[in-house]
Amino acid sequence: MKDLLDAARQAYEQAYAPYSNFQVGAALRAPSGRIYVGANVENAAYPIGNCAEPSAIAAMIAAGERRITECAVVAAGERLCTPCGGCRQRLAEFAGPDLKIHLGSPDGYRQTLTLGELLPYAFDLEEGDETPMEAKELHDRAADVVRARIPDAAPRVGLILGSGLGGFADGIEAGTAIDYADLPGFPQPSVEGHGGRLVLGTVGGLKVACLQGRVHLYEGVPVQAILPMIRTLRAIGCETLIVTNAAGSLREDVGPGSLVLIEDHINMLGQNPLTGAVRDRFLDLSEAYDKGYRERVQLVAAREQIELATGVYLATPGPSFETPAEIRAFKALGADLVGMSTVPEVIAARHAGLDVIGFSIVTNLAAGMSGNALSHNETLSEAGAAGAKLSRLLTAFCKELA
Ligand code: HPA
Question: What is the pTM for the complete model shown?
Fold first, then answer.
C-alpha cells in the first residue's frame, strides 16, 4: 500500500488546480503490478476539468492494461477526500466492489474503504464517519421511520400506483401517509399525476403499503434510485409487489380503457437497476411476473366480471412518445404494451425477493395506430376512467389474499 500512496502523493504535488487550490493525486495498481498515476487538471472553465482518478485510468489504458487491483487517492484538507460519484463509476468500469481505495493526505495514510462501500454514495464522507457498510443502509433507515410512525403497519403487499390509480390510496382503510421526503432514499417524483407518499393501511382486510407516485428515468434520476424504496417494502414485511402503470397498446383489440395483466416484459431502457456494486446481480427473470398469482388474479377478474387481457409490456426511456416505426418494431419483438416505467421496479423487486404482479391501464393505441397525436394529458385523463376498474379488481384481489 505504501508504494501506491507514495505515488499518489507525488502526483498530488504535480496537480494543476489554480482555480480551486484543491490538488488531488491518484495511483492505480494494475494486474502487472505496474502503478499508473494521475493528477487533477483544471482550466479557465473550472469546475470543468479532469479528476485525478480518470487521469490515472487513462494512463493505464494507454499502457494496454484494463484492470485495477488497488487504488490510492491523496489530497490535503480536513475532510477526507474520496473519489467523486462519477469517478466511482469510472473505477467500477475496471474493478469490482472489493477494490481497496486507500485515502491519504500529504502527511500519510488516513483510511481505506472499498469501492462497494463508496458506490451507493454520491460524494464524500467525513473522516471518522461510519463507513457506509457500517452505517445502516438507506432502506433499513426508511423502514425504521415507517415502524416508528406506524408500529403495527406490518404490510404484506406493496403496491405501486401509476398514473390514474392514485385514487386507490384514498380507499385504504385506516390509511396513514408518510411523505417520501421523510423516507431516506425515496426519490421524489416530479411528474404531474404522481404524489410521492407511502400510504399504509388495510384493503379488504389485507395490510398494504402503497407507493403513491414513482420516479421515471425521464426525470433524469439514475436507474438505481429505485432500489431503496423497493427494499424498504421488503424490510417492513411485504412479500409481494403489485405494480401498475398507464401504457399504450400495440393491439387493436385491446383499446383505451382496457385492463391488461402483465405476463412478461421487454427492457428497452438500456439500463438496469442492478448495474454497479450490487450483490447477486445475475438475477433470473424467467418468471418475473408470478405465474401462480397471475392465475389467481384471472379467476378474481372473471368472478368480478372485469375484462382482463394479458400481454407483454415493453419499457422505453421516453419521455417522447414512440414513432410509428418504433411501434411496428416493438410489435415484431412481441410487445403488446408500451410504457416508460415499471421494469426497473420489477427487477429491483425480484432482486429483493418479492413476488410481482403487474397491471397496465391502456390509455391509448400506440403511435401511428389511431391517427391521433399522443399527449401526456390524454394519458392522465384516460387513465382516470380505467383506473376505477382496476381499483375494483385490486380491492377484490386484496380480499382474496387476506
Ligand atoms: N407510449 C409510452 N408510454 C405511454 C403510452 C404510450 O403510448 N401511453 C401511456 N404511457
Answer: 0.69
| Cα separation, 214 vs 155, whole angstroms | 19
The secondary structure element, H or E, covering residue 247 is strand 240-249
Catalytic residue among 246, 288, 309, 383: 246
What residues form DSSP beta bridges with 313?
A: 265, 337
Distance CA 61, CA 115 (A): 20
Active-site annotation holds for 163: yes
Task: Convert 77-131 into a string of H (helix), E (strand) and C (coil).
Answer: CCCCCCCCHHHHHHHHCCCCCCCEEEEEECCEEEEEEEHHHHCCCCCCCCCCCCC
From ligand 1's centre to the CA of 364, what distance in Å? Answer: 7
How far is residue 184's CA from residue 140's CA, in Å, rounded to a whole number?
A: 9
pLDDT in tens, 123-162: 655 555 555 544 578 888 889 889 988 888 899 999 998 8
Ligand 1 atom closest to the Cα of residue 249 is 7
Instruction: Give, using CA atoms, the residue closest to atom 9 of ligand 1.
Output: 247
Active site residue 376: yes
